Prior knowledge:
The protein is mostly helical. About 70% of the residues lie in helices and about 0% in strands. It has helices at about 1-5, 10-40, 40-45, 50-55, 60-65, 65-80, 90-100. α2 (about 10-40) packs antiparallel against α6 and α2 (about 10-40) runs parallel beside α7. The model has no long low-confidence stretch (mean pLDDT about 90).
Amino acid sequence: MSGGIYAGAKESEVKKLRAFGRSIGLAFQIVDDVLDVTQTSEQLGKTAGKDTAAQKATYPALFGIEESARKADALVSAAFEELESFGERADTLKELARYLVERKK
């Protein structure tokens, strides 16, 4: 959003960037929660299983791993739809978002 504001984006464009950010942010968190229960500490580079040990209400704890992954995918799709009107100018932003949700650590 800040980049759009700085570049002189219209209010409607800033609104789309905000929606994109919210969707990608939640997708990132869901993926992070899934990785916490599916990867080892060595794979993650941090302590795995902390959320489960702390009995946090994470997406995997509430909906399971597969449903959580589907929700993250749906959020990414919704986020990308918000960027359609930006055309190729949004390609780098999409690549960054894709990296954030497809990571394995």
